[in-house]
């Protein structure tokens, strides 16, 4: 049964990535930067299905504008794509980095932030970690 769950999550992730138009699509952020989708990952931690949208924006640096950028990516990019999949996630995690990196591997040369959002009433609600 676990393999079936993993397969569903993998296929849903593929659908999300394919529905992403193209990973080369530039997404203008509120901060003025342009982000591009790196990848979409799915998993099932203890509290339910999670989709991780990983974005890259050249020139990204941590600033006060980062939460606005992450919220915008959740509301304007991730949320519309969730309606095209079967199982709905409990949370969406949005990450933004200055260059591509491998998920789960620490790279001191990459500046990266991520935030978790719950989905309530058709909106992304920021959760404090």
What is the gist of this entry?
This is Acetolactate synthase. By secondary structure, the chain is of the alpha+beta class.
Topology:
Blueprint (H helix, E strand, L loop, with lengths): L1 H17 L8 E2 L5 E10 L6 E7 L9 H17 L8 E7 L14 E9 L2 E5 L2
Parallel strand pairs: 3-4
Antiparallel strand pairs: 1-2, 2-3, 4-5, 5-6
Organism: Roseovarius azorensis
Pfam family, one: DUF6497
InterPro entries: DUF6497
Describe this protein's structure.
- The structure is a single chain.
- With 129 residues, the protein is an alpha+beta fold.
- The chain has one domain (2-127).
- Helices cover 26% and strands 31% of the residues.
- The protein has two helices and six strands.
- It has a six-stranded mixed β-sheet with strand order 1-2-3-4-5-6.
- Helix 2 (66-82) links the parallel strand 3 and strand 4.
**Major sheet, described briefly?**
6 strands, mixed
The N- to C-terminal Cα distance equals: 30 Å
Cα gyration radius (Å) = 14 Å
> What best-fitting shape do the alpha-carbon axes yield?
globular
Topology as a string of helices (H) and strands (E): HEEEHEEE
Largest beta sheet: what is the strand line-up? 1-2-3-4-5-6
Q: What number is the mean pLDDT? A: 84
